[in-house]
Amino acid sequence: MKKFEEKTTKTTPIYDGRIIKLQIDDVTLPNGQVAKREIIKHPGAVAVIAVTDEGKLVLVEQYRKALERSIIEIPAGKLEPGEEPVMTARRELEEETGYGAHQLTFLQTFATSPGFADEVIHLFVAKGLYTIVNKADLDEDEFVELLEVSLEEAQVMVADQRIYDAKTAFAVLWLAANLENNLLA
Q1: Nearest-10 crossing angle of helices 151-159, 166-180
Q2: Looking at the annotation, which residues are catalytic?
Q3: Paired sense of beta strands 120-131 and 99-111, if any
C-alpha cells in the first residue's frame, strides 16, 4: 500500500465533455473512514519555454474565460489522443507563435491542481527558433497575441499579475536561474 493511499470503492461519472470529465469517487481513507472526492480527469497538456536567439521569452496573451480576463502565458495546449508530448509541443509552438524550434528539450512533468484534477503538464524548452512560412492555424475558438519579452519584462509581468498562471511563472523563474548560470547556451 502507498503511504496515505485512498482506495476507490465506487466511481460515479458526472460529466463527459470535450476537454474534461468529472467524476465523484467514494474512497476509503487510511484510517478506515469513507469520503467522497470530486475528480476532474484531463488528457494532459504541454507547455513550451521558447527563447529567441536574443534571449527573449516568447509569450502569448489570451482571454481565459474561467478567470474572466486576459493573461500572458507561455505557449501551451492539450494533448490529443495518442499524441506524444513532444509532437504536441511542436504543434502548439507553431500554432500559437508561428515558430518552429531546432532544439526542443524535455524539462519535466508536473501536476497542475492535484487536489482535484489529474492534469499534468509536460514542459519543454525550445531554442534555435525559426519562423514557419505557412504556419498551422489556431483553433477556431482561439485568439492570441504574440509577445517577445526580456527576462526583466517578464518578471514585471509576474509582479503585476499579467502573468498569473503557475506554468508561466515557473518558466520565468527557470529562465532567470538558467540565464544567471549561463545554462541556455
Answers
A1: 140
A2: 140
A3: antiparallel
